[in-house]
Amino acid sequence: MRTRSAKALGAIAMLGASALVIAGCSAGNTEGPSDAPTDAAELPTTDWIRADAAGVQDGGDLNLAISALPSNFNIYQIDGNESDTVDLVETTIGGPFKIDESGAPIIDENYASSAEITSEDPQVVEIKLNPDAVWEDGTPVTVADYVATWQANNGSNEEYINVSTSGWDQIESMEAGDDEYHLVVTFSSVYADWQGLFTSLLKESVASDPAVFNEGFLTTATPSAGPFVITEVDTTGGVITAERNPLWWGETPKLDRILFQAVSQDQQGSSFANGEIDALYISANADQYETAQTVDGADIQATNGLTWTHVTMNAKEGPLADVNVRKAVASIVNREQISAAANTPVGVPAVTQGDYIFMPGQDGYTDAALPYDVDAGAAFLEEAGYTKDGESWVKDGEPLELSVTVPADTATNIQRAEQVQADLGEFGIPVELVSVPVAGYFSDYVIPGDFEMVSFSWVGTAFPISSTEPLFFPLDSEQNFTGTTDEALGDLWDQANAELDPEARIEIANEINAAIWEYVPMFPIAPLPNVWAVQDGVVNYGATQFETVDWTLVGWAAE
Questions:
Q1: Disulfide check for 276: which of 135, 271, 289, 400 has CB 3.0–4.6 Å away?
Q2: pTM for this structure?
Q3: Is the preceding peptide bond at 44 cis, omega within 30 degrees of 0?
């Protein structure tokens, strides 16, 4: 049986990386007309307006919204693992791999000329780095940066409050080969999703010091080795400015600047309508969808998504420590109704999610969810020792009451919680909604475990099997917010991560999924579509399921 150190953490941050990212202000909504297609497969994987370099004008600014300023700019540190932070940081960094439209990892020649397995026993990967790559201070990007990034994330030093050790802890050594641009990585066991570890990195000076890693970038950006560099963080005005990196060695970016403005989710629709921001992440927000339709020339785009909503239950203490209470809650909440209310108003399929690992439509997806069944819910509560007393469920003289902690001014999260509240309340389980400031929702409540139930979203990756592990195992993973685990999961994930045969990997993943449904630490609700609106003229940016944004090509269409 496998164990992990106390600081074995959860999810890494860049697109295509080895685990999941938190989406704090994920969408879901209530009502409206539907022109939804009947099959999620009808949606493309990328829906932005494409233009080659000649079709993009030189210069100009792009104004984008983030829900709040980052609490940490280091996306490898647990507080930096929020989708808004990842989105802005990825304008400044990349790695040997990026993700194409189909979801496959491909070489990013800005950072490497080749990356391949050169030995299978043991597994050895050799990467030829681009010698032209430099950090914003002119220091070359070398093997030393990758070694320091590995050592900060492999769990060997518990002072690092990192996001995930998954994959990193299976590397036995990382060293220079022929020179400082030849990276040789030897794994202690086969790791099928090895490419996911090499989509970004940290500068050696950042990764080699736990204090700098943890707290050195609370209000300033980590060093850039990408097409843009963050030049200003205006905490008063709530604006982060990224400008062309003068030392960028690749194709010159088309944009002069990208301005990230802190705008609450509730205000983003009106900001888009007023021309204050140039792109609007609608997801399943019907109000924002209707607003976007009123904007002259706006292009509304939709793809299948990797983001999924859920309810996480804190099993560490209280009524939800009993697995039968958790099963009852999962059986009583009508996930189909929540999905339909959220997705159909924005013209996309209403699909529930019953798999902890795969998204609907992905190979391996199996709906093993507890069905909506209030009678089964009652039976689970009786198994937990509760009896119906009037309108309440009572045990040892105490009525069963629960709470959901929600971020203030985030209508979609609140609406989803209200639907959970309504379903459970009608059944006889009162639910209190506890509103907390959105800026501290994760850092002060979710991550420390100061909640009974929460509902937000996870942003998946192109590596679904390895990326989901930290959400459930080990118990002390800092992205396992559930307060519980099944120790058998560690061995199952080891088997899955070491299996190179795709069909065999899926079989093991299905075993993992079934095992998690047996103790129900959370229950998925629905996959969120990627629905975006962009202002007239924005190209190479918008709705995508997998594809890494090429920030050198994002901009405004040439006239």
A1: 271
A2: 0.82
A3: no
